[in-house]
């Protein structure tokens, strides 16, 4: 295109997916097929699905690790695994599920759904989005390379020093974990920044901040959380790596370092992280459940405010992971109190969901079953959390299987169940086909029963005093039966998940054709075809209420939302930029073409991090690290090289 | 095998969480903390039960609300005529949130008050503890020092004797990584952290053996870092203490004397036997080894057979532990074991 226009009022027209406009947009937005397109695409839908597939792959790997451990623990004094093997398995299982599955899966859904929910054509920074995925994949591979070499992390996911220091842990295990986490932190950080800008600035005109779907609120909130929390853990791991390889003494008491510094830095990140990996899932339930209850969510404002409040309070409770470290009475009381208070916003969500069911007309589908059971699982994970918030009780509960049960109700109950419900809900949108309901019921009930059979009795294992992270136990402590039951439950849960994959592969080919809006959903993603075209919306819709597709039937909103008729933006890849609060049209955003840069920069960074890990074996690693730095720098230069057609403002003509 | 009592309790609690716990002794569930014995543990246990019951009530109520709501309000997505269930706009939902939050607030307020009251109650022992015991965690055993004037101070390992009904002060340190001292049935719990001395206390109100275990992951043999607290009646405790203060007796029998000689050569660099030149500080003090009920940090019962097996190949029993497998001959092994059996 020869001329870039900087000031124009877009036409408002009616358009469908088979209009000439749509064909033009298709040509503009389509990703090149084949291998080139695979590496260069910036389409948020492709990236979102990649995130989901990759995160599920890590879920399977982490799940298999868990099953091996459950065999070892099925009976007392088993010798299937050596202590070192067991230690690596529980560490890799934990960090895989928490870092490589739980957030990435939510990022995947958010990536796929954000522009569709918001009435936009892509994330605010499409290349950054691709970059965030590639870095996630690369850091996952980086961390797993250690496990493949037999040097997997072996100090648990929270990795306490001094056991993680070189004096006690001389192998490269911890270096892999430390550098891998710094690497992964880059992905999380850029991804979060992208979600924030996308949610704030690229909404359809009229989608004021009080009309955002709750899921968007969840991701927006946790993205802010990440920007504050991730630096803490990146720093913690970087200091650890320096202590190990460069001879610093941040954590080393023999040189006046402080081991508790690690715990503070880690939990300042990791407690907020717990909310990071549940709030978007709660948002998915808050959007999905009402659709099946045939009514809007009860208490939208209360739920949104409680989402934000949870995240804010989540930064004030980290000390409750350290109640037994010898803290003074006042600190114990304060953090116990703050940990109790955080229950309130969670309770708001629970009662809002219950109210939505009671005042709605629930229709039972597999997705609904996942969402509804989520409420009960959420409550179990919540009340066991309240118990551990009580300092004296926590003296006994902490580091026993009670806490293991608690964290699994949080991660499986509040993350996985929401995700699976979300998958049944949005799979038709993503693929154009429905998941089988028949297989879905089997999948749900086996997963649900297996999970509860495995993990509800585990609370009792904890109350009977079984400490976590022991590779075996003697037969005379009363833990045998409970452990066997948990193992049976774990295998049943795994079988349930297997059925999910069967359902996915079956339905991809043979599933019923979904159509644009199979569930009669209220939000914008249901207005476009399934799967959506590369440009999402042929014309940018205009929104007049919280439920654009329901508003007529509900008598909601001032004026009328307009989906078929809207802004025409077809001068190259474009979408609309709107104001933060009211979503008034503000600027036409020029969107980038597909690009190699995200991939090549990731490659450069991978060389750099690989160089750093190689310094464990050879000083030439430093050369590789330097090469990686140079490659990354060059890659960024190419990426950021100014392009006229991406210009948002006109250069002033020289007189 | 697990005892039937434990199995019954497991099932009983799993189903209805009955109060069958009264019939249980520490013997069936030595690590159980739903029942404790003493001024430190009892307030914690009451609180734990209170929170547990509250939690179960909440979960049952919420689950019932969900199930009942679905049952009463369910509808069909597509009606036979092909029409969809129409949207509903019923008000009154917000009342659920209001009532729910009010109830939650009451429960939380109660929990908070009870928590802080309990915390205050267990913060200090009921009376000034006459006895101070220093516990030092090591990978993967517990070094125990009874503090006192030089002639009253002595060292032992993995088995802590305390007098019944008397609070005991604990000074907790670590020789390497973070460990956590935990005796569930006495409610004693505190981390051992490098560079600091954590102080807590415990008390047992009836004689017995209370099992403890390291509760913070500390490496390969974290699973086998257990300990015993033995609560003795006061006179028995004094007898035990006097015995511990004595140096080891000279072995009388020929084979034991041979064993003593080999012990010094093979084991003395790491283990101490007071009254002999063996003065190593890497492993546990063995001066009165036979007064302990178990070996290898409560991993095996202290029988001659287990003792011999442990000396012969400690790595088979606790892989990765700091005691190396030493190539010793049969007669040497017999000698050392026989000598150790004299250390009463």
From TrEMBL, chain A:
Domain Cytochrome oxidase subunit I profile, first and last residues per copy = 23-544
The kind of enzyme this is, by top-level EC class, is: translocase
Write down the Pfam families for this protein, in alphabetical order: COX1 (PF00115)
Pathway in which the depicted protein is active = Energy metabolism; oxidative phosphorylation
Query: Which positions, given as ranges, span the membrane?
Result: 51-73, 93-118, 130-149, 176-200, 212-241, 261-285, 297-319, 331-355, 367-387, 407-427, 439-464, 484-505, 599-617, 623-641
* SUPFAM superfamilies attached to this UniProt entry: Cytochrome c oxidase subunit I-like
> Which GO cellular component does the record give, naming just one?
plasma membrane
Q: Where in the cell is it found?
A: Cell membrane
Q: Which GO terms describe its biological process?
A: aerobic respiration; electron transport coupled proton transport; respiratory electron transport chain
Question: Which InterPro entries does the record associate with it?
Answer: Cyt_c_oxase-like_su1_dom (IPR023616), Cyt_c_oxase-like_su1_sf (IPR036927), Cyt_C_Oxase_1 (IPR000883), Cyt_c_oxidase_su1_bac (IPR014241)
Q: What family is reported? A: Belongs to the heme-copper respiratory oxidase family.
From the Swiss-Prot or TrEMBL record, give the protein name: Cytochrome c oxidase subunit 1
